[in-house]
Write a structure and sequence with these properties.
about 70 residues; mainly alpha; 2 helices; elongated; transmembrane; mitochondrion inner membrane; transport
Amino acid sequence: MTFNRLLSRAVFVSRAGCRSAFTGSKPDMTNPNWFRVGLAFGTSAFLWGLLFKQHSTDTHEYKVRNGLE
């Protein structure tokens, strides 16, 4: 077997033998997965809430330490 034939056969086998698990089918844009959408927005809102709470706590602690409050 020549090198080109061997190489082309290896490329064919590697392309045919592996398929990405993440792109098995194209997503349906007309019917979104509402559970995943809600989970994404809920997680985002939860993290923003934690961020604001932590900022408020840190600001209060800073003011108390420096005698501003």
